[in-house]
Amino acid sequence: MHLVVPSDDFAAAWREAHAEWGPGFHEDGFGLTADDDVESAQGFSDWVERLRVDAECTYRWIVQGERVVGGIALRHDSHELADRLGHLGYGVRPSERGRGVASWAVREMLRLAADVGMARVTAVCEVDNAASIATLERAGGERVDFIGSAVRFSIPVP
Question: Which pTM value belongs to this model?
Answer without folding.
Answer: 0.92
